[in-house]
């Protein structure tokens, strides 16, 4: 009997050691006052009903599950009565967290963890309803430009929304053309071939204009461009169009 129990425990530890915690690669966007689901699951699926599960936002304990039940004693006061797991789904490794009545203070980086497993991270972003209802609109027609000239690549939000506090990205295929975040341009991730040649129109961003100015156009600049705002409806909403580069005639 003793040997059987020991073998069972070792097998369980082995299973956990070969399981990964999977969170969300994209930020989760929520409105103040709404409920939100922070996804996290084990892959391959593993029954975690007998294990401990913790959710944290920074050092704050958001939710604790242990001994086959929720443990509210150690939970941060700000989250009392607003969090729950899906206990019927835990047999299949689902440890996603439901957070209700979201407040501005709930924004931040969350971690879900199970003993003996690496933690997984989920970012919660609070947004304005106006942003969630907006669409990214790019030009449907190709933009034609001569080598050496400047080009305006048009893109805007409709209905209009102030984007000064949001993140905006421009890409050509997989190449990062321009990044705006934290109220300023961020040249660090920008592709070297576009350095010093791109800019937005900051005064126009309050009206949802995220058009890109590209100077001294080269033949290599031709291609499909994409403008997007990551925080729209929790999904990346994009606008596409082509830049056609020709020689001076």
From TrEMBL:
GO terms for biological process: regulation of cytokine production; regulation of leukocyte cell-cell adhesion; regulation of T cell activation; T cell receptor signaling pathway. Residues 1-19 form the signal peptide. It is found in: Membrane. GO terms for molecular function: signaling receptor binding. One of its GO terms (cellular component) is external side of plasma membrane. This is Ig-like domain-containing protein. The keyword Glycoprotein applies. The keyword Transcription regulation does not apply. Transmembrane segments: none annotated. It comes from the Eukaryota. Keywords: Disulfide bond, Glycoprotein, Immunoglobulin domain, Membrane, Signal. InterPro entries: Ig-like_dom, Ig-like_dom_sf, Ig-like_fold, Ig_sub, Ig_sub2, Ig_V-set, IgSF_BTN/MOG. It comes from Sparus aurata (Gilthead sea bream). Residues 33-114, 115-231 form the Ig-like domain.
